[in-house]
Amino acid sequence: MKPKIAVAISGGIDSLITAFILKKKYKDIVGLHFLTGYEPRSFHASELTAFSSKKNNTTLSISELPASHPIIHIKNQLDIPIKLIDCRKYFQKTVVDYFVESYRKGLTPNPCMICNPLIKFGIIFDLARQMGVSYFATGHYARIIEKKNNLYLLQKGTDTLKDQSYFLALLPKEVLPYVCFPLGTMTKQQVMEMAEQKKLTPVSKKESQDVCFIQNNNYAKFIASQDGFADSPGMITDLDGRVIGNHQGLHKFTIGQRRGINCPASEPYYVLKIDMKQNRLIVGFKKDLYKTGLLIKNINWFIPKPESPLNIFVKIRYRHQAAEATLIPHNNNSAIIHFKNPQTAITPGQGAVCYINDEVIAGGWIDE
Known about the structure:
Strand content: 25-35%
Radius of gyration: 22 Å
Distance between the termini: 51 Å
Order of helices and strands: EHEEEHEHHEEEEHHEEEEEEEEEE
CATH topology of the largest domain: Rossmann fold
CATH class of the largest domain: Alpha Beta
Oligomer: single chain
Largest sheet: 7 strands, mixed
Low-confidence stretches: 47-57
Shape: globular
């Protein structure tokens, strides 16, 4: 019998409780645990059975869980089948290489916003559908609502502190009818309490907003360890072009950063711009970080593309308090966003996500 629903199982508490909730609703359920290549070695299987699933010339492999695999602990607690999917090569090519290349270009990447549409709701979703499942679920704190005329929209999760709709804003809208987020109406505290009451224990404690392939959030060390990447010292200048110090590599900085500049002044310096062409770090004071607008490109629309300006709220990074703004459609699937009040540390390479009330209407990349 074909499974009715597939659940992405990471080993963490969120996906554990997601699967527990869905097992009560669906008799035919299967868990899918995918390998990125950056897990502890104990998570890797020595042999994986080939499975004919191809996307972007990448072959995935699927196998049963080896008896020694840590995810067996999840399988035994839930008493559901869990398949192991090897997408290490595709993850490296799609997510990690993008991450490193972004820093080479002087951008600040957002790997979760790439992984979700291309990995979890890309090749893993496609694989689940090939297995015959009707729905695909993850442990994200977000909601999907059905509007009139079969329009499905992504909505913020109930838990305002944990809401992950920002990271999901680039999902293809075509997948929304087949996706569910059981934790969307729950708080993190409720999830933890349910796990304790049901005596369910995860195998991983890492939070889902952490970058999964970087240990201890040490971005600079990870980037420096990549093949062909070397520190390239250069100048630190102020807005007037006056040299005030030296840096040891632009990959160690991002817009709005204060730490690591090490240039004495009457008040702290902050990173304002990363000039890759001249290998120059441009810094200024906190007041210089504020801007009234930005250009967003490669927009993923959840609503029909508007023909006139829209009043919206926009988040320019995950922990940013959504700011009131006007979205003005522009050329080539881009838009200009004007803030009602100037915002600080607008960072090229990060995602900008646009909301009307709690609904995500669009997401894209900050260009400038």
